[in-house]
Design brief:
By secondary structure, the chain is an all-alpha fold. The protein contains four helices and no strands. The protein is 75% helix and 0% strand. The two termini are 26 Å apart.
């Protein structure tokens, strides 16, 4: 979807198109990776619990979730700041003819 949107806007340089595509890929990877920390049904925490349990370290999902939640919240805040900074870079350089 972002590829079509960048193709329609002829004022974007190729480097800006690449930044937008990279930001889209980063966003998707972030959502897939860190959603495993928040949503127990996705399997990330269940996999860790199984491996640790088989290794002799019994844990409860609720204990793991309590420790994973602050990490997920912090990463969401950091990622939001990153996206806002990147969008400002894209918009501020939109009027410039060429990127360096």
């Amino acid at each position: 979807m972002n590829q079509q949107a960048t193709k329609d806007d002829q004022s974007l340089s190729e480097s800006k198109r690449m930044r937008i595509r990279a930001l889209s890929a980063i966003s998707e990877n972030f959502g897939n990776f860190f959603s495993q920390l928040i949503f127990i049904g996705s399997g990330g925490l269940l996999l860790i619990k199984g491996v640790l349990g088989d290794s002799g370290y019994p844990l409860e999902i609720s204990d793991m979730y309590i420790w994973a939640l602050p990490t997920a919240i912090a990463s969401i805040i950091i990622f939001s700041l990153f996206v806002n900074l990147e969008m400002k870079r894209i918009h501020s350089s939109k009027s410039k003819p060429e990127d360096k």
